[in-house]
Amino acid sequence: MVTPSTIDKLFNMDTLVKEPAAKATISDTPSTTPKTMDQHTQPSSAASTPSATETKPVIEIDNVSFSYDNGKTNTLRDISLDIAPKQVTAFIGPSGCGKSTLLRCLNRMNDLVETSMISHGEIRIMGQDIHAKDVSAIELRKQVGMVFQKYNPFPKSIYDNVAYGLRIQGIKNKSKLDEAVEKSLRGAALWDEVKDRLKTSALGLSGGQQQRLCIARTIAVQPKVILMDEPCSALDPIATAKVEQLIMDLRQDFTIVIVTHSMQQASRVSDRTAFFYLGELIEYDETNKIFTNPAEQRTEAYISGRFG
Amino acid sequence: MSSLPDKKDAIATSLNPFKQGKSRLRTIERIQRSVLLIATYSILISALVVFGTIIKNGAPVLWDKGFSFLTEKPQTLTVLDVAATEGLEISADGFERIVGDNKKLPVENSEEFEKSYPHTRFDLQPGTIIGDGYLQLIENNNHDFRVGFLSRSRDAQVGFNLSADSEFRVTSEQLEEIKKVDPEIVAGELTPVSEETNYFRVRVEKGDYEINKATYDALNPTTLIYIMLQSFNDDERNQIRSTKIPNSQVVTLSQAQYAACLAEEGGLPFSKVEPQVSVQDFLQFSMPAGQYELASKVLDILKLANPNASFVSLHNTERGAVELDLKEAVTLSLPTAAFEQVVRDNPDFKISNVSNYEVKKPFVRFDLSKDAQILAPNEVQLELKGENAGSGALNILDEHSHSYSGGGILGPIIGTALLVIICMTVALITGIASAIYLNEYARKGRFLKTVRLAMLNLAGVPSIVFGLFGLGLFVLIAPQITDTPSSSNNVVLRVPLAKIASEPNLRDIENNSIFMAESHHKTSDVVAAASANGKARFYNGWTYLSFQGWGTCMLAGGFTLAIMVLPVIITACEESLQAVPMGFREASLALGASKWQSIRTAVLPYAFPGILTASVLGITRVAGETAPIMFTAAVAERSLLPWEGLQSHGFGAFLEFLQQSVQAMPYHIYTVAGRIPQSQYTEPMQYGSVLVFLMLVMSLAGVSVYLRIRIRNKIKW
């Protein structure tokens, strides 16, 4: 749980040495050598449950090709990867490599693009092919929530924003809603900051608070998986730190898939990392290994900043 | 080296790199600038001139009349040139109107007094039977009182005077009927009479003929088939018109018809004439001169039997009496003289609680010191004439009327408001629905492009075309659910729905000429019979879906305007939907909302300000259109407001309300400015109407801007 005191600690030089994760947060060197990455990622890997990788994967992406134009050209080609429960999985890669597209396939947000289609393969979440005929995208999205790149709270009150997902499910009971709103806001480490102004407009919050509100809104409907599409790209480093801390806290309850452009961020928050390049999955492994000892030449070149 | 800076300065001053260019170029630039400036300012100036003219001419009218300009119906004022006189009398209200409308009237020695009229108040009981004419008298004196008839009694007694002894000749069937209704009337002796009637069978050869009106009228009831190439007017008795007989035919003519055909120049030449004789039996009796009480049905038969007998009707109208459909007693009042006549002439007039009272009216007596011009609405002018008819004080030198020169513009304002309400209800429901479909649901592709193109074209269609379209679709063929469908040949289709029609009340049957038929007849037969009988509508117990159009009414006008404004509304709604960030839809969907849920909760609320602005702009456009309502809804003259004088009750009254034509602001302005004779009296009305209209439209636009800002402040992203 991120509290104001932990944030203070994050920026207290004394604690920096003791908390490598925090040090990573404020480090703004564009490229880091594998050696320093090693130090940074060690604790977060250790934090994940050792058995996590051995349990049955929540998301199985099986040989998937995806096209935005009715199969004429494939934006994604033959992607296969499994995502383990209660872990943070990061997708990295240069712009246009298809990582966001893959993310949006996972809760069928690509359905909004009429000409899009999975031209090959299948995606299974909790063992169910999500493109099967009897799968409702609505029910799927209740289980697979999403946080967007640009924080997008509705122009309503903070309370109404968090309660939105429950209300459209038809829950009207006031006490139930109150309870869920508080729980979600606490879960998103926002409760203490907004508890006195729940009825004021969400647009009055700062950028970082708005993004955490969006996360609270997502966890309010109790999904199994949370997809995050570059959640910190519009935030300053301090707000980024808070959101990252939040992601690490949420790992205990949710399976998180995060798309990011910042390799530092991937290394700081994720347990496993997938590197995409030009619509193909180049390498997928323990974050630790990707950043210290990548198997592929291209991965190494990308993370060391030689291209991309 | 030390001289270098100086040298540089010298160069700088002599060769200024930013030196002004040639003066010619500067002049050209100045001219360019002033052309643009003039173009801009000319807009401003023309706006000022237009507004200035309207305000200069319109403001005095509003100043003079104040609020009454908005709350009064348009009136026709009569200008009376009156000689100087003494002792004119008029009610205080009328006096106030006259003085108010004629500020410069040379009124002197005005004194107030009271004049009283005797009135009688009485309770009218259920079961009353009353003569039709008297009922109208009561209705005219009691404005809230309108009743349905329970039944019209042709057997009710009618008083009449037979001025001379007369002989009547009736057939035995007619006698039976008389005896059934009124056995005592045929008291005298009956003499059987046989009468020979002469007929002529004549042959008419085919060909072209010139016939006169008398021949035409005589031939009209016969079976002769002919084609009239021109028709007669009723007032031209002896004109000759060409007629074509397509085939040689034989027709039978009565003696009178035959005589009429031969009487004048230009009759038809008959090639073969065979006289024929038929014998008819009559019963003859005589009635001495005197007063009688008869059922009106009997009177009709007698009149038919002896066209030469002189009847003078004493009381009740010849249409007979009606039994009133009263559930409980109602209190009514009449001027005492009229009341006494009603009671005297209607034996079945059931009343109670009769009381006399005086109606006191404040009156004013005044003098006019010199010849004057009095501008007055018709009722005031009539009152002035009526009250001074006895004294002869009023000496009218000249008198002329000017339509729309007085009163206000209440009717047009209300009409326009109603049209706008109907139009916007229809246009917003359809427009928002289709904008949502086009923007949120429809696949981007050829269909969408075609729809957009169609909409673009629709927006560019001249409004008069919409007017004609509305005339064709809504006025003439739109479907209507009705118990009494039209029997016109123009009705495309009549679909009987269910046998649940409620019988029209008697007054409707008579006023609207409804043909009454049995429910087992075929619709087409009933229609044929109705049109053969000259009835515009028919009733046979079925409720019909009849494609007979809605007629010229506000519903048709509202729908026509709605179609005209739809492209504007749809485009604007689409734009406001597009302005809602995609992120709201995505966020909502990602939280498990269905498509419609996300539109309803995360898109529409934020598109609302835009839709609101669009609809208010739509209102201003719709309110100002003349062409679409010319054929579909608007009338120049209408004395009743839409909710006045409705005949039906409940939902029927609502439908009747919608099926009325209305006055409308733009059409009213057009009428006043261009369709009536212009005079100094009508001109102020014209400018006043324009100013009010302009203010209404501008305040609407203002409201829309204000609302938009307010809502936009509340909801923003």
UniProtKB/TrEMBL annotation, chain B:
Keywords: Membrane, Transmembrane, Transmembrane helix, Transport. GO terms for biological process: transmembrane transport. It comes from the Bacteria. It is found in: Cell membrane. It is a multi-pass membrane protein. The chain crosses the membrane at residues 34-55, 409-438, 458-478, 547-572, 603-623, 687-707. Gene3D superfamilies: MetI-like (1.10.3720.10). This is ABC transporter permease subunit. The lineage of its organism: Bacteria, Pseudomonadati, Verrucomicrobiota, Verrucomicrobiia, Verrucomicrobiales.
